[in-house]
Amino acid sequence: MSEPCILEVLHSLDYGGAEVLAVRLAQRFSIKYPVAIALIDGRGPLEKHLDTQRIRTCVIGRKPGLDWGCVFRLRRMLMERMPAVIIAHQYTPFFYCSVARSLVKHFPIIYVEHGRFYPDHKKLRRFLFNRFLLRKNDVIVAVGHAVKRALVEKEGFPARRVSVIYNGVDSRRFDSCFAKRNDYRRLLGAMPDDVIVAHVARFDPLKDHLTAVKAMQDLRNSAIKLVLVGDGPTRTEVEATVRDMKLGDSVQVLGYREDIPEILMASDIFLLTSLNEGIPVTIIEAMMAGLPVVATEVGGVSEIVVNGETGLLVPPGNPDAIAKALRQLATDVDLRIRLGRAGRQRAEILFSEDRMFAEYDAIVSRFITPNAQ
């Protein structure tokens, strides 16, 4: 096989929105071009979804803090692979790629920012440094307009250099799952009248699972049942809180799952309680599954969910508001159906995977053509 034409660089292949997007781009680009993935922190469960005959992966390795060893290992990789273009997901991979390529030759970078916490105060030194990292042919992609504003206002990147490409989801993954709805509801232990609320997110402080659990205190005697799907550092704390609040009959922690489409199709409402977000893939997946969404109004969430039309938006960290929104949807079947249908239509128009890939492919084609293999 020829040397890779596209090199994707990201933190790891642990389950998360940025990682899922990187894998889907690699899968689709590998049909046209040779592709490799470099992981600066480590591997993860998403690696098993890659065709290793077409997509090669390697771990660069990074120590806490500024790791010059990581820079030189990445530099050596660039010299060996000579990619036509680098796609760096998130700021840290972009930083290391920018420094490493300055020690070799010019490799164009497509920097994809998925959303994160940004500095509270603008710092001139950071503004100047970020503009120093950027080269003439580099492209910055923000996954939403809120993310673009943060890159411009908090990080000092020129607005004219930042394009917006919304995350996308393949609706076909959900179309065949509805027939399994009753089977999956039984697997979840749901009674016929139960209203299943799915919360799919990595267990991380930013996802604020504890607020979701606290909201269930007011709903413990109702038909509403919360299913938490995911894994991560705060899972143990959340499970302990569920036990301490004696909410075992109302809240299930399923852990990491591969069958997200089936779980969503078996559910009635989708919930996300994040403190900060870019354009969360899990909300788009829920809308593709035809679910009404209850979500915190942070980051780019309001670019996906139209309050009162495709879901209900609530303030972050407010369990009372979440409980009220869940109760409203649980007791109004017609409202659930109306919001869910509208959400599916909106997702198919704005957040399809085909549209997303076409926009990334248009950028990549500036640097590489299909026969350059």
UniProtKB/TrEMBL annotation:
Q: Indicate the segments forming the Glycosyl transferase family domain, all copies.
A: 185-346
Q: Which InterPro entries match?
A: Glyco_trans_1, Glyco_trans_4-like_N
Q: Which GO terms describe its molecular function?
A: glycosyltransferase activity
Give one Pfam hit by family name. Glycos_transf_1
Report if keyword Transferase is assigned. yes
Hydrolase among the record's keywords?
no
Keywords from the UniProt entry: Transferase
Task: List the Gene3D superfamilies.
Answer: Glycogen Phosphorylase B
- Where do the coiled-coil regions begin and end? none
User: Where do the Glycosyltransferase subfamily 4-like N-terminal domain residues begin and end?
Assistant: 15-172
Which PANTHER family does the annotation name?
A: GLYCOSYLTRANSFERASE (PTHR12526)
User: Could you tell me what this protein is called?
Assistant: Glycosyl transferase
Which species is listed as the source? Thermogutta terrifontis
